[in-house]
Each structure stands twice: as C-alpha cells, then as structure tokens.
Design a protein that fits this description.
This protein has 227 residues and is an alpha+beta fold. It folds into two domains: 126 residues, no CATH class; 80 residues, Nonspecific Lipid-transfer Protein, Chain A (2-Layer Sandwich), CATH 3.30.1050. It holds the Pfam family MDMPI_N.
Length: 227
C-alpha cells in the first residue's frame, strides 16, 4: 500500500482539520509575499522576496538540491537550481508553490509542524523585519512555548559557532546555554521569538538585551550563528 493511500485511510478528507503553527506561518508569509511583490527586501543577504520564495520551493520540492542548503561544497548546485526555479516560474506561481506544502509535508502534517514551524516563522520575520516600520508580533502562548522548547533544545547546535559562551534568558522564565562551555559569557535576554531570531543569525534584528564585556558582545553579534 502506498504512503498516500495509507494517509487517506487513516485521515479521510473532512474528518480532521489540521491547523498547525507551521501552516499558519506558511500562510501568513505567503500572504505577505503576495502583497509585497517580487522585489521587496528581506533579511537574507542578497535575496529579494522572489529569491526567498524560490529557496522555499527548492527546499521542499527539489530533494536533489536540498543538501546544498546546509553543505557548503554543494551550495553552488543548489544556487543554480534556485536561479532556474526563479526564472521558470512567474512570481505568483512561486508563492502558490510555497503556500501548499510539498513532498512528504503535504501528506504528513505532523512532519510539517515538526520541521517547518521555525523555518517559516524565521522567514516570515525575515520579510516583515526588512520592511519599514515593522513591529514585533504578539504570539499565541502555545506558539511562544513551542518556540522556546525548540530554542532550548537546539541552543547548542545553533550557537556552536559562537565565539563566547552564551546564556539565553527567556522573559517569562527559562534558561538555555550555548557556545564554548568555558571562558567568557554573554547573557542574552528576550522573548522566545527574539531569542530564536538571534540564534538563527539575525542578531542585529532581534530585540534582545545583551550583557557582558563589550568586546565579547561585539564578537557575538558578528558571529555566524544558526543551524
């Protein structure tokens, strides 16, 4: 029996309505991409909104090019595929392809939620925060808790390139550690969503308070962080 057939048997159409944070962020991002058009800036260096949309299409629909997103020696091929996707598809079609989950994510909402909640949250903010007069969002309490759970669990990975030890303090409660285990430390305090943006390499666009030696803070702000 095929996987798609099994999913249909377990979850017949209309029986279960999936409303996940990943789907919510995906939809909100696509609505914003539609409003802004293909040439708006993003926080992803060198990328317009069209480039970001093409990246997300490649990430979900071109498994041959996915390794290059994380593996630098393969990044040239991935960049070439991304340019091709951008050139072949009109911008509205790119956004449409992003709007509907591709690959296994279309069949397994739980997988989409596990893998894509932070991805789409961060890229939604990449677009929002690159526009004039953006303001922080008030997030649902369960999304805030989920983000903090992922940040706390992934701090060591996201901060592995930090030049100094990092102590993350979540407003409302919670502490997580990253970076070198010995030596100087910088305290980073903010809401869970802002700590996520910081740990994902958006240090200059995260609303956090940093405490520590000024030189250590400067080095941490300039570091290449993220997964």
């Amino acid at each position: 029996m095929s996987l798609s057939r099994l999913i249909k048997l377990l979850f017949p159409a209309g029986r279960v309505a999936y409303v996940t944070h990943a789907r919510g962020e995906r939809t909100a991002l696509c609505d914003l991409l539609d409003r802004l058009g293909p040439d708006a800036p993003t926080l992803c260096e060198g990328w317009t909104t069209a480039d970001l949309a093409a990246h997300l299409v490649v990430r979900e629909r071109r498994p041959d090019a996915m390794p290059g997103i994380a593996v630098k020696p393969l990044s040239g091929y991935t960049a070439s595929v991304q340019r091709g996707v951008k050139e072949r598809h009109p911008y509205p079609e790119l956004v449409r392809l992003v709007r509907e989950p591709g690959g296994a994510y279309a069949l397994l909402p739980a997988l989409d939620e596990a893998v894509n909640t932070l991805e789409f949250f961060v890229h939604h903010e990449d677009v929002r925060r690159a526009q004039p007069s953006w303001e922080p969002r008030e997030l649902p309490a369960d999304l805030d808790r989920l983000i903090w759970k992922r940040v706390a669990g992934g701090a060591r990975l996201m901060l592995r390139k930090a030049p100094v030890g990092v102590v993350l303090h979540r407003l409302g409660g919670g502490v997580a550690l990253g970076g070198p285990r010995h030596g100087a430390r910088v305290e980073v305090t903010g809401r869970a969503s802002e700590l996520l943006m910081f740990c994902f390499g958006r240090q200059e666009h995260a609303e956090v308070e940093l405490t520590g030696d000024p030189d250590d803070i400067a080095r941490l702000r300039a570091a290449s962080l993220g997964v």
